[in-house]
Amino acid sequence: ETTATMENGKNVTISLLMTSTNYRAPLSRLAETAWMVTGGNAVDSNILQSQIRRLSESLQQANDGGQSLSTSTLSCAILARKTSDHLQTVTQKMGNAGRILASFALLAGRNDKNSYSLWRIDPSGQFWKCNASCIGRGAAAAEEHLLKLISNKNDSVDLSTFFRNLSTQEAISMACECIDTVLPKENKLYWQALILRPPLSENGDQASTSQVLNGDEIVALLKSISKQ
Fold it and tell me: Are 170 and 163 in contact (CB under 8 A)?
């Protein structure tokens, strides 16, 4: 599986996930304001998802008193830090601390009322905020292809400016191309796309809008883009 995720300057986070026929690690909603996906060894990816979900529930209980998933707020940045601390425990202790999981995680969501971000977490617990990332099978090749696309579209290769000006459709199209480059024979019907949009009100009081596209919807969107 390969996950290509992008965040543009308009605070719209685009996350596309391709899964194979024998393993599916779908986009997982943690709260109204946070989503995650994992990639790597199938068993370890499921374990990591369970661990992140438990950390998420603990944070929500502490912050919101256990509100329902549809109303709970959750800082993506804080969850990334908590997940990093949890994974680093294994590298620092022996015995009952467990083992290093052969899986990566991407967290996408809201940090505060007006800030959205994308975080990548590696098996060792290292984590960082990014504009685009790929995890899973063929991730290195997908990221290399993404850099080539950026270079072809923007001579200055100013990544901050590039992503700031990237439209939602452009992000989806580029992410799909990166996945298709490394997994050309995979059926697009197994793809998922998550679109996170920021609050509509200026003060950020209105909840964010999330939209998940299935494979058929992604294929139809790509066709419409190609005709433009």
Answer: no
Contact criterion met (CB below 8 Å) for 137 and 1? yes
- State the pTM of this model: 0.81
Residue with tokens 């290509």: 4
Q: What is the mean pLDDT of the chain?
A: 76
Does the pLDDT at position 23 exceed 50?
Answer: no
| Residue type (1 letter), 102 | A
Paired strand residues for 196: 13, 210
Q: Which amino acid is at 146?
A: L
218/15 Cα distance (integer angstroms): 12
Sign of the C-alpha dihedral computed for residues 213, 215, 216 and 218 taken in this order:
positive
Cα–Cα distance list, 69 to 48, 192, 199, 219 (Å): 20, 21, 17, 30
Contact 129, 115 (CB under 8 A): no
